[in-house]
């Protein structure tokens, strides 16, 4: 998909994205005022413009305005310290940043940095996601730059703590979230056939900057995949907040024999997703590595709430193949994506699935049952309207099994 489509509406984006009230970027309120802290953050962003980061533009600067005739006051929502945000917007009138979500030059450089033995070609019309330099795990480079991560991204790289589930509280403001729809093994070593894949991909967002695993497998429990097949995700644990940016950290390897040191490195590093320039339409980017590449499909879901979907299967009469997908509304289009695909032979729970859904829109869930030896599939659907909090459920009674769907609605805080 053309990188030039990877853009957003500035007027709507700014109007819908007030800054977090308790940002992790803020220095203690006991020593500095909120305004002074935000000015310090803005100053850091300015100094970062000449850093060695090979990813997105400085994270606190808005992109170039899409409409040059739009009045400045119309772009600024009503919230405290809005004069500071006018200053940030004004800076971009001078800088004239690209309006694209992924800088084309950096995208091309990321593609060229991929292993040439994988026959990477810029003519493939694929957006390669830049990887921040010095962020590789296997050689320890990422840990040698602890001060860099603390200064620029405000987290301790040595802290490998997984994000926690928020205690039950009621929030009344929907937030913009990043929804990852799928991950696919786009490239693998030549003539490799089926491979055993392990490691992790995790998001760090502005809620707590902890690891929110989207995929996480140990070497003793790898998944079997082939080039072109989907990578089964077992996360995230909670929704991914997207106010300004999200860091995607990854270290995925291909098992190659008995010894770990012989394993092949698929992808390794950190990429930065800039929420202020992310499209509300689904897009796919490629993360390239030494021995392959992973395609990630995602979108920004505006004014969204978190849906945690639980599926419990009981009263199984005979084995069957089950495909489970969700469809959500993304402004002017709907997006369907797969959540589960596998064989069911006995009563079980499929686990939890976290989905970002725009408030007051419908989330559709589709179940397809394929009986072995039968030419026709059974399809059953149910829908839930997104709300700020609460619970909902639906029972599907099929000939071969009973499927109970439970949905819990919640709103993410700006930070814990």
Can you give a write-up of this model?
With 416 residues, the protein is mainly β. The chain has 3 domains: 3-95, no CATH class; 104-302, no CATH class; 304-410, Immunoglobulin-like. 13% of the residues lie in helices and 38% in strands. Strands 1, 2, 6, 9, 10, 13, 16 and 17 form an 8-stranded mixed sheet that branches. Strands 3, 4, 5, 7 and 8 form a 5-stranded antiparallel sheet that branches. Strands 12-11-14-15 form a 4-stranded antiparallel sheet, with no helix packed on it. Strand 9 and strand 10 form a beta hairpin. Mean pLDDT is 76; it is low at 1-108 and 114-123. Pfam families: DUF6598. InterPro entries: DUF6598 (IPR046533). This is DUF6598 domain-containing protein. It comes from Aegilops tauschii subsp. strangulata.
Structure in a nutshell:
The protein is mostly beta strands and about 425 residues long. It has helices at about 10-15, 35-45, 80-95, 105-110, 140-145, 145-155; strands at about 125-130, 175-185, 195-205, 210-215, 225, 240, 245-255, 265-275, 285-290, 290-315, 320-330, 335-345, 350-360, 360-370, 375-385, 390-395, 400-410.
What is this structure's SSE topology?
Layout: H1 10-16, H2 34-47, H3 82-95, H4 104-112, E1 127-128, H5 141-144, H6 146-153, E2 175-187, E3 195-204, E4 212-217, E5 223-225, E6 240-241, E7 245-254, E8 264-274, E9 283-289, E10 292-314, E11 320-330, E12 333-344, E13 348-358, E14 362-370, E15 377-385, E16 390-397, E17 402-410
Parallel strand pairs: 1-9
Antiparallel strand pairs: 2-6, 2-10, 3-4, 3-5, 3-7, 7-8, 9-10, 10-13, 10-17, 11-12, 11-14, 14-15, 16-17
InterPro entries: DUF6598 (IPR046533)
Protein name: DUF6598 domain-containing protein
Pfam family, one: DUF6598
């Amino acid at each position: 998909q053309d990188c030039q489509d990877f853009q957003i509406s500035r007027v709507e984006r700014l109007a819908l994205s007030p800054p977090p009230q308790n940002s992790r970027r803020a220095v203690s309120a006991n020593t500095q005022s909120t305004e002074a802290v935000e000015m310090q953050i803005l100053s850091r962003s300015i100094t970062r413009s000449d850093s060695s980061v090979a990813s997105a533009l400085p994270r606190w600067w808005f992109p170039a305005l899409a409409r040059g005739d739009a009045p400045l006051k119309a772009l600024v929502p009503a919230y405290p310290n809005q004069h500071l945000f006018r200053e940030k917007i004004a800076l971009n009138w001078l800088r004239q940043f690209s309006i694209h979500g992924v800088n084309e030059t950096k995208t091309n450089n990321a593609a060229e940095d991929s292993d040439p033995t994988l026959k990477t070609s810029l003519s493939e019309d694929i957006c390669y996601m830049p990887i921040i330099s010095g962020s590789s795990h296997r050689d320890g480079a990422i840990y040698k730059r602890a001060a860099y991560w603390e200064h620029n991204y405000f987290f301790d790289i040595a802290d490998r703590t997984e994000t926690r589930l928020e205690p039950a509280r009621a929030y009344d403001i929907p937030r913009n979230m990043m929804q990852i729809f799928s991950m696919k093994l786009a490239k693998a070593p030549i003539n490799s056939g089926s491979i055993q894949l392990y490691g992790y991909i995790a998001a760090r967002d502005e809620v707590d900057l902890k690891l929110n695993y989207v995929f996480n497998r140990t070497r003793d429990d790898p998944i079997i995949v082939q080039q072109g097949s989907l990578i089964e995700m077992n996360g995230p644990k909670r929704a991914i907040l997207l106010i300004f940016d999200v860091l995607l950290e990854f270290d995925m390897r291909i098992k190659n024999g008995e010894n770990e040191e012989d394993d092949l490195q698929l992808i390794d590093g950190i990429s930065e997703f800039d929420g202020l320039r992310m499209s509300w339409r689904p897009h796919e980017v490629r993360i390239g590595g030494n021995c392959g590449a992973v395609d990630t499909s995602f979108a920004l879901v505006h004014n969204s709430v978190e849906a945690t979907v639980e599926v419990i299967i009981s009263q199984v009469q005979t084995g069957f193949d089950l495909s489970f997908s969700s469809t959500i509304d993304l402004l002017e289009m709907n997006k369907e994506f797969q959540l589960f695909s596998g064989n069911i032979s006995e009563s079980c729970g499929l686990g939890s699935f976290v989905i970002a859904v725009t408030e007051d829109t419908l989330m559709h869930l589709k179940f397809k049952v394929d009986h072995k030896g039968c030419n026709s599939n059974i399809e059953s659907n149910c829908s839930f309207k997104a709300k700020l909090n609460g619970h909902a459920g639906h029972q599907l009674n099929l000939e071969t099994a009973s499927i109970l769907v439970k949905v819990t609605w919640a709103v993410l805080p700006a930070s814990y």
